[in-house]
């Protein structure tokens, strides 16, 4: 039997989780892995950038249902790439956008919205 991540999670369940996480958290990062064990370099970079300015933020591991999360997140952001950061319900961007904001000295204020 082949392991299929997220096979037990419906599209509706994932969409509900995404909607709830975006609405319920000041800062939420949808990433591969979790804050303690990122599973890709882009996710690690996003965690590091956010952690410079915010002590408490939510992370959601998309790997258990990657395709469903990509689809649900694309509905909110127009992007299908991971990681994705939302602040106060608004899409900010992935690790590259976070890095650009940080270089311009705007990331702390963006995360503080």
Provide a descriptive summary of the structure in words:
The chain has 113 residues and is of the alpha+beta class. Strand 3 (84-87) and strand 4 (90-93) form a beta hairpin. It has helices at 11-24, 41-51, 66-77, 95-103, 107-111; strands spanning 27-31, 58-61, 84-87, 90-93. The chain has a single domain, classed as Glutaredoxin (3-Layer(aba) Sandwich).
Short overview:
This protein is α+β, with helices and mostly antiparallel strands.
Give the CATH superfamily: Glutaredoxin
Number of domains: 1
Apparent shape: globular
As a percent range, the share of strand residues is: 15-25%
Please count the helical segments: 5
Mean pLDDT: 92
CATH A-level architecture: 3-Layer(aba) Sandwich
Q: What is the gyration radius calculated from CA atoms? A: 14 Å
Under CATH, the topology can be stated as Glutaredoxin
Unreliable residue runs: none
Largest sheet: 4 strands, mixed
Topology:
Layout: H1 11-24, E1 27-31, H2 41-51, E2 58-61, H3 66-77, E3 84-87, E4 90-93, H4 95-103, H5 107-111
Parallel strand pairs: 1-2
Antiparallel strand pairs: 1-3, 3-4
Structural descriptors:
Glutaredoxin; four-stranded mixed β-sheet; 5 helices; globular
């Amino acid at each position: 039997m082949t392991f299929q991540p997220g096979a037990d999670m419906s599209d509706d369940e994932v969409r509900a989780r995404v909607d709830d996480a975006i609405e319920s958290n000041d800062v939420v990062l949808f990433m591969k892995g979790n804050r303690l064990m990122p599973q890709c370099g882009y996710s690690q970079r996003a965690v590091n950038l956010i952690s410079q300015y915010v002590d408490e933020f939510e992370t959601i591991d998309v790997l258990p249902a990657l395709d469903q999360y990509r689809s649900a997140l694309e509905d909110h952001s127009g992007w299908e790439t991971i990681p994705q950061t939302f602040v106060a319900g608004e899409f900010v961007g992935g690790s590259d956008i976070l890095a650009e904001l940080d270089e311009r000295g705007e990331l702390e204020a963006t995360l503080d919205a």
